[in-house]
Request: fold
Amino acid sequence: MQTPKINILVVEDDPAICNGLLDVLVFNGYAAQGEADGGRGLEAALAGAFDLVLLDVMLPTMDGFEICKALRRAKPTQPVIMITAKGAEDDIVAGFKAGADDYVNKPFSLRELMVRVEAVLRRSGKPLGDERIDCGRVTFDGCNLKAVCGDRVQELTRREMDLIVYLHRHQNRIVSKRELLTEVWHYADADIETRTVDIHMLKLRKKITRLDETAAPIETIRGQGYRWVAGEK
Reply:
């Protein structure tokens, strides 16, 4: 009996880019469907059973950020990679804030794209963070994807919780960005150039600070990586 193909939805309004992406995905053994309109793309993503959504930002009727937010509300575990010409740090942060698992800037190499696709697909079946971690006054709840301090609550993404769990498991030693890309993002080629770890870490630290200004469990070791330094209390 033949194994069902992994099914990927491409939401991209540029016909040349959309057709190129569909061709590459099919060539690499995936089933792929394309939508050029944002509203129709969201409808397709909600109605279908897709293993991954490749999502452009600038789309007719509804932009990619809004699509990603709506998709996250309806399907919290749906893997999403945003693909866009908007490469400024604010746009990357906005993409992750909307719930994207990864963010690829145009122009991109096909090799880079397939590395990202394979990494997100591998990761989607291997969540790390289904546990509870107490750090001073802050509790990280992996089952409900929340960080709590008293009556203050910050929602966490699955990737942020995976980062917390991995660093906590390896606390008091330096964890390199390459190791995080391999073990948390599951990149096959962890030498690929990406700011994904830095952006996620910046966002995560801001969330922790909003809960407790004195909490600083993640230490940056310049040029080497990160270290979880907070002990259990």
In short: The chain has eight helices and eleven strands. The first strand starts at residue 7 and ends at 11.
